[in-house]
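agent: user wants the structure for Lipoprotein from Flavobacterium geliluteum. delegating to structure tool.
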Amino acid sequence: MKNIKLGCLFFVLTMTLVSCAGKKPVVVQNTTTTEKVITETVHDTVFKIEKDSSSYNALLECINGKVRLKEVTQAEPGRILKPPKVQITDNILQVDCDAKAQELFATWKSTYIKENKQEIKEVPVITNVLTSWQKFQIECFWPLVVILLLVVIWNLIKYKFKSSI
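agent: tool returned. relaying tokens verbatim.
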């Protein structure tokens, strides 16, 4: 009977030691790619300037066959144009009208940044799937340890009381 108990004890200890194995990590692969697209656009424009005019009215007279400026009745400048300069020399009329220089063309750049982010997730790779026998061993481990401890304690108590009598 003692050999059967020792054999059962040896069998239980062997099964518990064999069933304990290290757990390997589950392999999961995640890939993230980021793509930046930079679009740069050059814009230009033309400013439309309304028409401008200046006017000059004067009375002329003729003295000894030569034309002369008698009186200026009206001289109006425009928004940009100055009043005209009028000269009469040897019966020749000269009108000069000056304007300020203008720059009417403008350009600018606009930059648009578009960022595409793609995330690829793969299904986890399951390595080391437990068999039904391994699951059974894991479930039975703690009850067997408790039973084993109870048997050892019982045998120690029994042995102690036998030796004291």
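agent: one observation worth passing along. The two ends are 22 Å apart (CA to CA).
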